[in-house]
Amino acid sequence: MAYRIMIQGTMSNVGKSLLVAGLARIFAKDGYKTAPFKSQNMALNSFITHDGLEMGRAQVVQAEAAGIVPEVYMNPVLLKPVNEMGSQVIVNGKPVCNMKAKDYFKYKIKLVPGIMEAFNYLDKKFDIVVIEGAGSPAEINLKDNDIVNMGLAEMTDSPVLLAGDIDRGGVFAQLYGTIALLEDKERERIKGLLVNKFRGDKSILAPGIKMLEDKCGKPVFGVVPYINVDIEDEDSLAGRLSACKTAGIIDIVVIRLPKISNFTDFNVFESFEGVSLRYVDRLEDLKEPDMVFIPGSKNTIKDLIWMRQNGIEAAIKKVNSKGCVVFGICGGYQMLGNTISDPYNMEEGGSVQGLGFIDMDTVFGREKHTVQVSGCFGSIEGIFAGLSGKEYKGYEIHMGQPPDGKMDNPCINIQACQDNIYASYVHGLFDNTDIAYTIIKALADRKGADTSNIYNFDYSSYKEKQYDILAETIRENVDIDRIYNIMGVK
């Protein structure tokens, strides 16, 4: 049986995912084979495992931090919101159905055996399992049949650390109020508190920490500073999506669709000096970029209609006519075609005209296509001809495909309209920085920009350094020996 520790939070986006990643890194560095676990994740950023199963990317990041291969057992239930009222329910890596929130609330108790089977697999295989909760354990209207916070802590007999986000303000009320709303047996599971995302002089915080400990009857295990690391965010609450940025030497825009999925596809571009990556959801913010990405979507037809109604579709066509590259990924690829049809109501049903850049019709089937892919690009024409023959790898997640079921080379150049329309079904395509660098260099050369400060680098090594920074900062500011002690590690 593995040792285990669970990180819960006072609310969403307090930094649970990064705390779990950091602890997993620390335990792995200390010689323990460590795995992350989140019984139920709600996110539009997902990943496909080596055996073609879908899981949340947050647990993939945590697995990477621990130095292990991601497995679907680390996230047995994934909810991907389709609209404001419902989500696609994915169990053990496979979609089950679309379900309204109130129906899922009644249904989720049936998932407990599968959740425990997944946890028990990790429990036998690893030395330590670091468990992540979801939202808050004090959502008193949702506590019946809880499978992700205190309910899961009880099922797995896990000690809990409760984290609060001081950067948002009110951290003392967050932590005290959460504990006050818990039942006695739940309160007993909380062994300590964490104050996360602190900026400033800790000595000023000290009197408040002492009072918090007295009122809650729980020790504060650490005050974690706001850590400026470049590690993937879990969902579209991510600050990078709303950060205001000015155009760089190379200006890349990602259309921030209402149901944007896998926006982490583009993170690598932010690591190149002189390159701006801007997420845009307003017509006036598009401006004159060098390249526009239309990303994946969990509601492709509705998001395409949204682009049409707010004028972004017309603006994309206008900048494209002036030479701007348009690159569609997954759902964005489908939007570039002639039509998209959803005859089986896999999202919301219906059909819609596409942007018409690519002579392709997409039909959503009943089965989701989920697979890891790798290979070499064929002959690529146009501005990105330098991609020809380069190796790629990634994964595909999509319901739609051409009516004949045949798909082209993972990265294609279509000249039906211009030489600057590209598309791919492959997520993670640009994590190979040679591909990202080739794209940036081609854009820079076309506009005669100075590229002396833009250089290629190893993105995998870069991410490893970011995980180390995260772990070292947590180790310096949290009582790790105390965590080992409550887990029972001698």
What is the approximate shape? globular
**CA-based gyration radius:** 23 Å
- In round numbers, the mean pLDDT is 92
The side-by-side strand order for the widest beta sheet comes to 2-9-1-10-11-12
Number of separate helices: 14
Helix content: 25-40%
Give the N-to-C terminal Cα separation. Answer: 15 Å
Topology, number of strands = 24
Low-confidence stretches: 413-417
Tell me what portion of residues adopts beta-strand conformation.
Answer: 25-35%
| Main sheet characteristics | 6 strands, parallel
Structural class computed from helices and strand pairing: alpha/beta
Q: What does this 3D model show about the protein?
A:
Helices cover 31% and strands 27% of the residues. It has helices spanning 16-29, 57-66, 101-107, 112-125, 150-156, 171-181, 184-189, 202-216, 300-309, 312-321, 331-335, 433-447, 459-477, 480-487, and strands spanning 3-9, 34-37, 40-42, 46-48, 54-56, 77-81, 86-91, 94-100, 128-132, 160-165, 190-198, 220-225, 250-255, 260-261, 275-280, 291-294, 296-297, 325-329, 339-342, 350-353, 361-376, 391-401, 412-413, 421-424. By secondary structure, the chain is of the alpha/beta class. It has a six-stranded parallel sheet with strand order 2-9-1-10-11-12, sandwiched between helices. The chain has a six-stranded mixed sheet with strand order 15-13-16-18-24-23.
Set out the fold topology.
Blueprint: E1 3-9, H1 16-29, E2 34-37, E3 40-42, E4 46-48, E5 54-56, H2 57-66, E6 77-81, E7 86-91, E8 94-100, H3 101-107, H4 112-125, E9 128-132, H5 150-156, E10 160-165, H6 171-181, H7 184-189, E11 190-198, H8 202-216, E12 220-225, E13 250-255, E14 260-261, E15 275-280, E16 291-294, E17 296-297, H9 300-309, H10 312-321, E18 325-329, H11 331-335, E19 339-342, E20 350-353, E21 361-376, E22 391-401, E23 412-413, E24 421-424, H12 433-447, H13 459-477, H14 480-487
Parallel strand pairs: 1-9, 1-10, 2-9, 3-6, 10-11, 11-12, 13-15, 13-16, 16-18, 18-24, 19-21
Antiparallel strand pairs: 4-5, 6-7, 7-8, 14-17, 19-20, 21-22, 23-24
Helix pairs in contact: 1-2, 1-13, 6-8
